[in-house]
Amino acid sequence: MSAQQQIFHYQQEFRLESGAVLPGFQLAYTTYGKLSPQRDNVVWVCHALTGSADFTAWWSGLFGEGKLYDPEDWFIVCANTLGGCYGSTGPLSVNPDTLKTYFHSFPQLTNRDIVAAFELLRQELELEQVHTLIGGSLGGQQALEWALQQPDAFQRLVHVASNARHSAWGIAFNESQRMAIRQDPTWIENSETAGREGLKTARAIAMLSYRHYKGYELSQQEPGNSITDNYRAASYQVYQGEKLATRFNAYTYWLLSKAMDSHNIGRGRGGVENALQRLKAKTLFVGVDTDLLFPVEEQRFLHEQVPGSSFALLRSDYGHDGFLVETEQLADAINRFYQAETINQEYYEKQAV
Questions:
Q1: Which of 133, 152, 182, 250 is the most exposed place for a label (fewest CB within 10 A)?
Q2: pLDDT (tens digit, 9 = 90+) per residue, 231-257?
Q3: Is residue 291 annotated as part of the catalytic site, yes or no?
Q4: One of 131, 166, 263, 320 is an active-site residue; which one?
Q5: Secondary structure element (H or E) that encloses residue 217, with its range
């Protein structure tokens, strides 16, 4: 069974949190597996900053035959975020009003705008109930925001390596990356390659927040004592920048890093603690012990604020990227989360007899 790539077209005006309006949009999305007759086996995945709707490519340890989410048992959905560059409407799309490519004129998005677009797709697919909503990093921010906007739609939330509002530390990292893009003289242009060299530097900066000292020591330290230049760690930074620039664009990187900065579930809801009272989904909060960008205290805080929630800690040398690497640990944590719910349900059923 293979994943199916599809396109959702929304052909009405779409008003953003800023007040700007998109004259419609499209979302590229992937489905994998078969919807059960009871329509109770839906898993919805929200991807990270540079991810795509093809979750089998970047979270393959969780999804596939014999994996935690086997397509024989689950119906899995993931949409490329609005503003993305993997088939959804974004800065490199043509504005139907002007018949010109958006480029710099594409309006700024927040996570709430992105989630509102996802919600329109959910309604189009007639998925009244989602068994599990799962997302990591930026995707975790969006998943939490969505679960608050539509508390009756999501039965369970798996929130991985993310937070309730983006930190000053995280915003500073993102702005440093955007500074690198701004320094690229081509950034002012309206072209597909505008800011590409700056994007390479931005990605190199980002790697220092995604990874950890331990990981670099293990994988990038020189084996001998005679090197005085051309270090492995230096070439690794260049490689990561070049690699992203071949599959992404500076506009989307800028746009989605700004969306990440906008994340604050307490905005307009009386603060974070009040906002979390809206959450109805049974929730698992997952952290990575070496995460520098979304440190574990952010997930512990959420766990403490949400009565009845669960918490799991992944141990990794890969820092924030551990949520993508340590899939065996993550799958075990989600399995325990599901099993604990079953045990509790059986206990209460026995007490009721």
A1: 152
A2: 999 999 999 999 999 999 999 999 999
A3: yes
A4: 320
A5: helix 213-220
Q: Domain tally for the chain? A: 2
Q: Dihedral (C-alpha) 54, 164, 294, 239: value to the nearest 10 degrees?
A: 40
Picking from 220, 236, 257, the residue at the C-terminal end of a domain is 257
Binding residue numbers: 203, 321
Q: 162 and 184 in one domain? A: no
Nearest in space to 165 (alpha carbons), one of 83, 92, 269: 269
Domain check: are 90 and 233 in the same one? Answer: no
**142/346: higher pLDDT:** 142
Binding residues for substrate: 203, 321
Clarify whether residues 181 and 247 are in a common domain: yes
The string of pLDDT tens digits covering residues 116-153 is 999 999 999 999 999 999 999 999 999 999 999 999 99
What's residue 342's pLDDT?
Answer: 75
* Angle subtended by helix axes 250-262 and 196-210, to nearest 10: 40
Which of the listed residues 257, 280, 307 is the one where a domain comes to its end? 257
Catalytic residue, chosen from 184, 261, 291, 317, is: 291
Residue by residue, DSSP assigns 40-104 as: --EEEEE--TT--S-HHHHSTTTBSTTSSB-TTT-EEEEEPPTT-SSSSS-TTSEETTTTEE-GG
320 in catalytic set: yes
Catalytic residue among 52, 137, 310, 316: 137
Residue 23 sits in which domain range?
4-167+264-352
On average, the pLDDT of the chain sits at 96
Q: What is the pTM of this model?
A: 0.95
Do 346 and 231 lie in one domain? The reply is no
pLDDT at 348: 45
pLDDT at position 218 is 94
Q: CB count, 10 Å around CB of 93?
A: 19
For residue 250, give the CATH number of its domain: 1.10.1740.110
Q: Write the CATH number for 55.
A: 3.40.50.1820
**Is 131 in the active site?**
no
The β-bridge relationship of strands 132-136 and 42-46 is parallel
